[in-house]
Amino acid sequence: MLRWLIVVFLALIIFSGLQKWLQKLGFGRLPGDLRFRLFGREFFIPITSTLLLSMVAAAIARWV
Length: 64
Known about the structure:
Strand content: 15-25%
Number of strands: 2
Strand order of the largest sheet: 1-2
């Protein structure tokens, strides 16, 4: 359980560091990525980007 927690934590750190670079490539603006305002705050749910990144990660994991 602790190993998975560390992996998720590291993945979040890496993703947050690469977020500006990924946005230049179009991630976060794909059809299916939800962005809405509620009570003056902006919420973002990257459904399509998450699916695409997970498919890429699975392909890399299968290749390695």
